[in-house]
TrEMBL record:
Residues covered by the Glutamate/phenylalanine/leucine/valine/L-tryptophan dehydrogenase C-terminal domain: 187-417
Organism lineage string: Bacteria, Candidatus Eiseniibacteriota
Magnesium found in the keyword field: no
Binding sites annotated in the UniProt record for NAD(+): T194, N225
Name of the protein described by the UniProt record: Glutamate dehydrogenase
Length: 420
């Protein structure tokens, strides 16, 4: 891969460019840029774990708090062989902007352990998780830093984190972590929250450009938690899902796929590929199917300078984190495509994580429709705040979302003052 292309595909480089463009537009005092650019704290822990064969292995774990200006650090923990400090620092900053853009009272954090969970037993993963929590016992906490699931961690991992933290505290502390099972203080509606949030911002975007969702053609790349929930809810609003794909392949039908039948095929075959109600679509070609709305909900770097001009959608709602490169973003902007940026479009997940933390702290749990109504209020308000910023400054929704988020953090610093 050429070094230019390598640079285009570096999500951390993309995040840096996004931050800098917005900071410049805001004409920020460089001393404030200095304060918010770097994480406030990065902790590295060495974690000895006894493996099932009796030997010991030492793993490296990280927890980065980018900002706690607006509230406790918030962000997931990932288990992956490629986890490293640079990546975790960049992802922690992203969380600061994501929480600020939806106006929830959290800062940004991220954690991870360099490990290969596919090659570890449940027992090894449990011991690794508990040791990580024990070593970070003074770093995380309901008032200081609240982790959540990310790549290769799940409800079970969160349950172990909650239990370990609680054993040290000598009482049960459910609000130390979100994304827990319902039985242990999880929130109703958390599983669907990100896909539902994608629906709410698409509704607002469609209103803005005068597109009716009834009969609107939608393509969804990635049919997991985010993509499948968004597709299901859009169909209930009258949209036609004309293409879906997952890691094994895709399927398209310009007249609309039969979603219940597709879900049946998915639960039987574990993939949407080969669904008989449409024609096969290979790889990234799914993004180029004629449609009104495109939802990339799989991976980063799917829309690049190579395919951006071939897309037909009027609205792109980024369910995934970082699916559009900086270069592709410029091309789409010029073409007048409304791109709802990841930090806004997929923030339904962290928003309901916030609701989980609130419910745990008050020890009183909301019904699912209450969670959904509150989520809708936050997503609709955030979309309109970003759209207003974009109109005022004549910038894209992405630049506006970063500007709004950075401004909220800087305003908080100014109000608090810098303690010296
Ligand atoms: P998931 O694992 O449930 O689903 C991912 C889907 O993408 C699967 O269908 C998988 O087969 C598909 N996929 C993987 N590689 C692909 C490829 N090359 N081409 C097409 N499809 C491919 O994950 P998820 O929770 O739905 O997350 C999807 C994206 O949304 C990720 O970028 C994630 O970071 C982001 N996100 C998720 C949440 C959340 O709450 N789940 C919140 C914010 C952002």
């Amino acid at each position: 891969m050429g070094s230019e292309l390598q640079k285009e595909l570096d999500p951390l480089e993309n995040a840096r460019l996004q931050f800098e463009e917005a900071a410049q537009r805001l004409k920020l005092d460089p001393s404030f840029v200095q304060i918010i650019k770097e994480p406030r704290r990065a902790t590295i822990v060495k974690l000895p774990v006894q493996m099932d064969d009796g030997t010991f292995r030492v793993f490296t774990g990280y927890r980065v708090q980018h900002s706690i200006i607006r509230g406790p650090a918030k962000g997931g923990i990932r288990y992956h062989p490629d986890v490293n400090l640079d990546e975790i620092m960049a992802l922690a900053a992203w969380m600061t902007w994501k929480c600020a853009v939806v106006g929830i009272p959290f800062g940004g954090g991220k954690g991870g352990i360099a490990c290969d969970p596919a090659k570890m037993s449940q027992g090894e993963l449990e011991r690794l998780t508990r040791r990580y929590v024990a070593d970070l016992i003074d770093v995380i906490g309901p008032e200081s830093d609240v982790p959540a699931p990310d790549v290769n961690t799940n409800e079970q991992t969160m349950a172990w984190i909650m239990d370990t933290y609680s054993m040290h505290a000598r009482h049960t502390v459910t609000s130390v972590v979100t994304g827990k099972p319902l039985e242990l203080g999880g929130s109703a509606g958390r599983r669907e929250a990100t896909g539902r949030g994608v629906l709410f911002v698409i509704r607002e975007a469609a209103k803005k450009i005068g597109l009716s969702l009834k009969g609107a053609k939608v393509v969804v790349q990635g049919f997991g938690n985010v993509g499948s929930v968004a597709a299901d809810l859009l169909v209930k609003d009258g949209a036609l899902i004309v293409g879906v794909s997952d890691v094994k392949g895709g399927v398209g039908n310009p007249k609309g796929l039969d979603l219940p039948a597709l879900m049946g095929h998915l639960s039987e075959k574990k993939t949407v590929a080969g669904f008989p109600g449409g024609t096969p679509v290979e790889g990234k070609k799914i993004l180029e199917l004629p449609c009104d709305i495109l939802i990339p909900a799989a991976l980063e770097n799917q829309i690049t300078h190579v395919n951006a001009s071939r897309l037909s959608a009027r609205i792109i709602a980024e369910g995934a984190n970082g699916p559009t490169t900086h270069q592709a973003d410029k091309i789409l902007n010029k073409a007048g495509v409304m791109v709802i940026p990841d930090i806004l479009a997929n923030s339904g997940g962290v928003t309901v994580s916030y609701f989980e933390w609130v419910q745990d702290r008050q020890g009183y749990f909301w019904r699912e429709h209450e969670v959904n109504e509150r989520l809708e209020h936050i997503m609709v308000t955030a979309f309109n705040d970003v759209a207003r910023m974009a109109e005022e400054h004549k910038v894209s929704l992405r630049v506006a979302a970063f500007m709004l988020a950075i401004k909220r953090v800087v305003d908080a610093i100014q109000l608090r003052g810098v303690y010296a």
